[in-house]
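Name: Aminomethyltransferase
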Amino acid sequence: MASKRAAILLRPASSGLKASSTALRHPSSSHISVRNLSIQAARPRKPTGPLQQSIRYASSKAKSEELGQTGLYELHSKYGAKFVPFGGYSMPVQYSDLGIVDSHNWTREKASLFDVGHMVQHFFSGPGAEAFLQRITPSSLSSLAEYTSTLSTLLHRETGGIVDDTVIARLPGKFYVVTNAGCREKDLAYLTEELAAWKKDNPEQTVDWKVLDGQGLVALQGPLAAKILERVLEEKPAADLKSLYFGGSTLATIKGTETEVLVSRGGYTGEDGFEISIPAFATEAVAQFLLDSAPDELRLAGLGARDTLRLEAGMCLYGHDLDDSTTPVEAALSWIIGKDRRANGGFYGDSVILQQLKKKSEGGGVTRRRVGFIVEGAPAREGAEVVNEAGEKIGNITSGCPSPTVKKNIAMGYIKDGMHKSGTEIQVVVRGKRRKATVAKMPFVPSKYYKAPTTK
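Structure predicted for Aminomethyltransferase:
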């Protein structure tokens, strides 16, 4: 029944994710080329038809009447969502059927579906796309195979500070890039400026940039995620999931429909799972179809569970654990800097970042490092100070919560270099009182990513 209904709802068009297609030029999308930078950069527009999304804002502090809505807003309402402002959108924090802790545990035990359609999806293509992205990020994109992805960061030109964290995937003839909703205005201004500079420096290496406004994005996360997805995909892509490892992507079609989606294995919870990019017209129908296909295994989950899950997984939230003043080395993200980039540089902030990667005896290193903490007593929240026995400030907490899985108070933050080793005892000031705490390794909960077998 669900499959038949989805077929009726979804048949109008394919996703247009193939390299040769232009079907993703949704009416509210922006198509920006360095050949013509006079085109306005990807600003939210008022809806002009049934497929348009509400006006979008980057700041979560926007007035309630200005908040945008993803393509799943009505579905969230149907399932009893409690909404909060986040990244300029009205987003579900939890649902009527499960509290935040119960939703967190459900994800760890079964599977949950998260709406991440507030994130900004981009395509970069053209002869200069790879070189342009390698200029503004520290990633080795030249060695990135088709249908694979990497976590990366957009960098400030002089300081190497993080403009935003991002995921970059290579598709045939283009790069698929996802950035944060809360950084939308800043990122669009940054990319517009950098594309203009690129055009001036490299007039022959053109770059085309499309912002996929209205494109849906959901995250299917949990130990049953693959089983659920296999049931709703056409036979060949479903079989291919067995060889789709963490960081890999594939184009797939929902059973009984002509709706093509981009399936990427990964996520923000530490569990096995997938992020699924869906054409705007089909986002709600695909999400409902997934839910109907596994009523005893899959439930919607909101921002509350997403935050506790990502903290247990040791993952950063931009604007809290990362900001413009933080470099990848300070943020314990040195692993995103490719070997060839370490040898040759050529990316923004390379003089700062490459120096930080050097040994202290060579004048390298950093003054602070991102680490995890286990805190006794009351949980430590963002802004709490980390101090030594003498009461001297040596760091600060950027995220913290009681862990539903570990059953302890966990936190993430920055601490003075030299005090960052796991097991180091420190104190955290919570509500004016010092609480005993210990520097801890992250992730707090072992990751369960589906990775390719290692060869000896």
